[in-house]
Amino acid sequence: MANTVVIGAGLSGLVAAIRLARAGRGVTLLTKGIGGLPLSQGTVDILGYAPDRVETPIQASASMPEAHPYRVLGPAAIAAGVAYVQELLGDRLVGSPERNVLLPTAVGSLRPTCLVPTSMTAGVVTGGIRYVLVGFRQLKDFYPLLCAGNLERQTTPDGQPIHARGIILDMPAVEDMADSNAIGYARSLDNPAYRIKLAAVIKPMLEDGEVVGFPAMVGEHDASAHRHLEQLLDHPVFEVPLPPPGVPGMRLNALLTGLAKEAGVRIVAGARVVTFESDGDRILSVGQATAGRIRQYAADTFVYAPGGFESGALNMDSYGTVTETLFDLPLHGLGPDLITAGEPADQALFRVGVGVDKEMRVVDPAGNAPYSNLYAAGGILAGAIRWSEKSGDGIALASAVTAADSILKGA
Q1: Domain end residue (candidates: 240, 261, 284)
Q2: Which residue, 54, 129, 353, 369, could crosslink 382 as a Cys pair with Cβ 3.0–4.6 Å?
Q3: Does residue 260 sit in the same domain as residue 395?
Q4: How many structural domains are present in the chain?
């Protein structure tokens, strides 16, 4: 019997599984698919807006509404979550949870984030920066002239101008291919010969002091691709995230999945968890729907990290009734006006979710735990609108590490 079953393979599920397994627990991770990380930008957002743009995320987290996960977790847990992912990934993620930086987006806006992949650090907005954005006629997800024009309409945080220009190349990812996507280019850029060919075309177009921005596709698997391209161009190079699926998110997912397997986590993918068995206030097992039967996985503790509405863990029916779809857990944040005529970021519906105590044990609105051995982490938690706050990664990391540590301490 596994000591712990983790449900969900997103950031929170993978990090909780790794932490438990490295501490000697037997861990089985159950997931229908590959989790949400490939849809991400590869950065780690702690808190970007509250509602104005945030400069110091951990400090600002203490001012979030009382029902927000950050108020339950506290600043120390947020810092511990960030420190753990930095420990796992080393110099692949750069930054501090104490301060946000700004990165250009594909449309030339400025996005606050906290931890940045090495391949994006040269693009951090600073005074006097000069960008040259490189696009490809065969890639329809990035328009460098649009990006550069919008960047030039803005200023750095200290009020200095941003200089940017765009270049469009006629260079397919694969010869004679009329259209391609970021993944196709990333696979071509895994090949040193393609990087050499690309650099030979671009280098004569560059000016002294420019930072070169490519769509986020500088190699899918080759970790040396970014540094090699910088050496060939003799200019700093950074990646601009594109619409999902995102190559940097795919890299992050591959790294964490690999670490989980190295730690001994048993990953069972391809089928949804649909049933559970309990005895009183303890869950005994969960059932995964495999071909022709339900396969049971027993454990003494369970970490529930399935995501929220986007993954089907939460559902609203045609009568406006919101439910959690596996354990039928009591939900927090329910009320009469979940959907209003306001903007999506203002909808109370998206704050609905599962409540937890400080150990991440699931609790009902009165603070009682329906199951003493069930912990929750990540997007299933109530109280946050993760995409508008840019808080989802910080919530995932802090809750995953806290849940794992509570299990290890026997909380």
Answers
A1: 240
A2: 353
A3: yes
A4: 2
Give me the half-sphere count of Cα atoms (radius 13 Å) on the Cβ side of residue 164: 29
Mention every residue, 6+ apart, whose C-beta is less than 8 A from residue 90: none
CA distance 59 to 75: 8
Phi (first) and psi of residue 49, to 5 degrees: -140, 140
Q: How far apart are CA 269 and CA 253, in angstroms?
A: 14
Nearest to 147 by CA among 183, 114, 109, 175: 109
Residue type, 113: T
User: Which of 240, 263, 295 lies at the terminal end of a domain, its last residue?
Assistant: 240
Distance CA 339, CA 63 (A): 25
The model carries a pTM of 0.95
CATH number of 301's domain = 3.50.50.60
Shared domain for 254 and 394, answered yes or no, is yes
Owning domain of residue 165? 106-240
> What DSSP designation does 162 have?
-
pLDDT 10s digits, 241-289: 998 889 999 999 999 999 999 999 999 999 999 999 999 999 999 999 9
Secondary structure class of 148 (helix, strand, coil)? helix
Q: Give the tens place of pLDDT for each residue, 127-184.
A: 889 999 999 999 999 999 999 999 999 999 889 999 999 999 999 998 877 788 999 9
Whether 380 and 258 map to the same domain: the answer is yes
Q: pLDDT tens digit string along 339-379?
A: 776 776 678 889 999 999 999 999 999 999 999 999 999 99
Cβ(180)–Cβ(140) under 8 Å? no
Is residue 263 located within the same domain as residue 400? yes
The closest of 106, 85, 80, 98 to 43, measured between CA atoms, is 85
